[in-house]
Fold this protein.
Amino acid sequence: MMTSTETSTDMIRFYNVTKRYPGGQTALDDVSFHVERGEFVFLTGSSGAGKTTLLKVIFRQESPSQGQILVNGRNVSSIPRKKVPFLRRSIGVVFQDFRLIHRKTVFENVTFVPKVLGVHLKDRRRIAYAALRRVGLAHRINAFPPELSGGEQQRVAIARAVINRPELLIADEPTGNLDPELSREILRLFLDINRQGTTILLATHDKDIIQRLGGRLLTLDSGRLASDQTLPPGELARHETPASPSFVTEDGNEYEDENSPDGEAYSFE
């Protein structure tokens, strides 16, 4: 039953959420907020403010000590452990350290979860190509992570997160290991994904990328929600994303992908 404060437009809603760890450390302290479907929201705060913990309780890597968390209308805390994987199928997660498996190709990394779910190889090829094309890396589908730059590895991680077209995408400092130019490129990818309807909650301490996009900003301070504000639109928010994106390869040449997954340019060994 929907309450007067909860609406069908909510993707995330926190009700007085507190998270305490053994030993007494309080990571989140009586946090309440909501994120509507289709929103792009930044989460910021100093190191140790609680950003990572807040993201973890959304996809049930951690459980709150008090309060309730609704994700897409479901009470995350009450979901039985055996059904948590079903929750996570509707949530894409991007980490700062990429978390790619170095001994597996880009294709194998991106399709790891679909393979576990029993998706047929032909279908995995199709969705992997689509996800990698979306981030401008279809031409690197047979490469291994150590052969890629940091920016390319993060794009692979984003492709892996969106391969199942999740309704919600959460990212924990996704530009933390990248230089400013690559950070802006990654932000443009998130913006493009958001414009296609995916709700995004992005944790960062990078004031530059926040200002370049603008919009809603949640700030944590010692586990408490210190502010919830809306910034003026930045230059990226005013920039129209091209319908058919092109990207710059490592040698400085522009690459625009026009091949199909069945074309000779790609092989799926």
